[in-house]
From TrEMBL:
CDD domains: AdoMet_MTases. Gene3D superfamilies: Vaccinia Virus protein VP39 (3.40.50.150). It comes from Cottoperca gobio (Frogmouth). SUPFAM superfamilies: S-adenosyl-L-methionine-dependent methyltransferases. Belongs to the methyltransferase superfamily. The keyword Oxidoreductase applies. The gene is ndufaf5. This is Arginine-hydroxylase NDUFAF5, mitochondrial. GO terms for cellular component: mitochondrion.
Length: 355
């Protein structure tokens, strides 16, 4: 399943995005598995502790704060919000699927209110919106829901236990070092029978860019270093939500493919989104020859018939509920009154003509 969503104008390769000739388009499709290109070595995915113990330190959170502040300060920053707007609307759709009104909600890493602008006060009466970027909070969009901005790190929520009826998050959790700990905090601030609805980048996101840079750097410099941050696999999310205490879990994945004129536009838009790599082991600079080689490899391996190149984003969606006595529970073990051995007899016809 795929559908065109919108179109935007970008300048040709070699200059920053602006209104000019050339265009990109994007499409959505559903996917339940990750792809691995044969012959290409993928960077290791983000490791997760099975027990949730021990805080990882993968990302430089101070650098991510600077990146997001810089992106939010751009005069034309709205033109980089296309992905956040679309994912925010899909998170809002999942809120609408729940037939209840939420008196108090929390949006973690909400930025410019990419979820709130799609919500109605008939479903959410009051909203707290947090972000690590002060500039993003200052530029949040108007909403019919009364909204209170709070400058706070997603890894340290400054709220009391059992405060919110609903917690949402869109495209923010993939930059958190201690994801299991963050999920436990979300569970803690929810009221019993409260629900968490989140979306994060994961899976094989930007595999085209990653593979092109790896091949180019290996060819030109004799080795490669990571230029795309590690991501969480969809198969890990269910376990993480369960370990955090959530029940009635739902996890699914959308594949978003955006088409750009060239690799320069891909990297420029990532920077404009505030999505540049901030991993501690990143390499700060790329040689010009390496970038040119990566651009050629990207075109050769992934270019579409019209000459554009795709950038793939795997968006992981998750829904989890904080337990409450009113929620449906599985039957007690051993309480069944029908044997599996008797199931085959159910479909056997009964002979009513026998005397």
């Amino acid at each position: 399943m795929s559908s065109g969503v919108c179109r935007r104008v970008l300048q040709s390769a070699g200059s920053p995005p602006a209104a000019s000739a050339g265009s990109w388009s994007w499409s959505w499709s559903m996917s339940s598995c990750c792809r691995h290109r044969p012959g290409l070595r993928s960077e290791p995915r983000r490791g997760l502790s099975a027990s949730g113990r021990g805080t990882m330190n993968v990302f430089n959170r101070e650098m991510k704060k600077r990146q997001k502040n810089w992106a939010a300060s751009l005069q034309d920053g709205h033109q980089y919000d296309y992905l956040r707007n679309e994912v925010g609307s899909r998170v809002a759709d999942r809120v609408y699927d729940i037939a209840r009104t939420f008196p108090l909600a929390l949006d973690i890493g909400g930025g410019k209110s990419h979820i709130a602008e799609h919500l109605s006060k008939d479903f959410v009466e009051r909203l707290f919106l947090t972000d690590v970027s002060e500039n993003s909070l200052k530029r949040r969009r108007a909403s019919e829901i009364p909204t209170h901005g709070v400058l706070a790190d997603e890894e340290f929520l400054p709220f009391k236990e059992n405060t919110f009826d609903l917690v949402v998050s869109s495209l923010s959790l993939h930059w958190i070092n201690d994801l299991p700990g963050a999920l436990r905090q979300i569970h803690q601030v929810l009221k019993p029978d409260g629900v968490f609805i989140g979306a994060m980048v994961g899976g094989e996101t930007l595999y085209e860019l990653r593979c092109s840079l790896q091949l180019a750097e290996t060819e030109r410099e004799g080795g490669f270093s990571p230029h795309v941050s590690p991501y969480t696999a969809v198969t890990d999310l269910g376990n993480l939500l369960g370990q955090a205490g959530f029940t009635m879990l739902t996890v699914d994945i959308d594949e978003v493919q955006v088409h750009y004129p060239g690799i320069t536009e891909v990297m420029a838009d990532l920077q404009g989104m505030g999505e540049s790599n901030c991993a501690w082991n990143r390499r700060a600079m790329l040689h010009r020859d390496t970038i040119l080689a990566a651009a050629a490899i990207y075109k050769e391996m992934y270019a579409s018939e019209d000459g554009s190149i795709p950038a793939t984003f795997d968006i992981l969606y998750m829904i989890g509920w904080k337990p409450h006595e009113s929620q449906a529970r599985p039957a007690r073990r051993g309480s069944a009154n029908v044997s599996f051995g008797d199931l085959s007899k159910i479909s056997q016809p009964t002979d009513t003509n026998k005397s």
